Amino acid sequence: MDREEREAFLKEEYDFEDLMRIVKKLRAPDGCPWDRKQTHESIHDCMIEETFEVIEAVNQHDIPNLREELGDVLLQVLLHSVIAEEEKEFTFEEVVDELAAKLIRRHPHVFGEDKPAESPEEGLSRWESIKKKEKESKKSTQVGELSRIPQELPPVMRAYKVIKKAEKYYGRTDGAEELLEEIKKCQDAENTLTNRIETFIKNMEG
Description:
This protein is mainly α. The protein folds into 2 domains: 1-105, Helix Hairpins (Orthogonal Bundle), CATH 1.10.287; 142-206, no CATH class. It contains 11 helices and no strands. It has helices at residues 3-9, 16-27, 33-37, 44-59, 63-86, 92-105, 108-111, 120-137, 142-147, 155-170, 176-205.
C-alpha cells in the first residue's frame, strides 16, 4: 500500500462507509491473508462467540464493553455480506432493504393506519400475528417451524424454545411439564458448572 492510499485509511473518526471500505480492503487481493481465506462456514463460530460476549456485557452492565462487542458482531455481519457479494449471493444493501421493509411491514401500528399498540405485549402480539401470516403465505408448516429453531443454540435454550413453540402451535403437549422440569435441572447444573469455572479462573489469576 502506497503512502497516499494508506493515509486515506487513517482518520481520527470513521463512519459506516469508512468501515465498509476497510472490510472490503481486508478481503481484497492485497488485503489480509486470513480475512481473504474466510467463508460463511469458517466464521460461523465467530458470530456465536461474539453474540454471547454481547450478552455477557449486557448482563454485567458493562457499557464500554457492550459498545466494543456490538462492533465485533457488526464486523461479522459485514464479513458475511462482503463474502456473499463476492459470491454473487446478495449484497449488504439487500440485507438493509429486506430488514427495513420487514420492520415497517410488521409495525402497521407505527407506520400504517392501525391504531397504536397500547402496551409492549400488544406490540409483540401484532408482530407475531403478522409473522405467522407471512409464514402461512410461504406454506411453512408447524413442524417446519419447530425444525427452524437453530441447532446451534445451547441445548438447554433450544429445548426450551422447542417446547414453547410446540405449545404455541399445538396447545399444552403431553410431557411438556416434565420436560420443562428437566430443562430447569439442566440449567441449574449449567449454572453450577459456570460458577465452578469462574472460581477456577479466579484462583488461577490469584
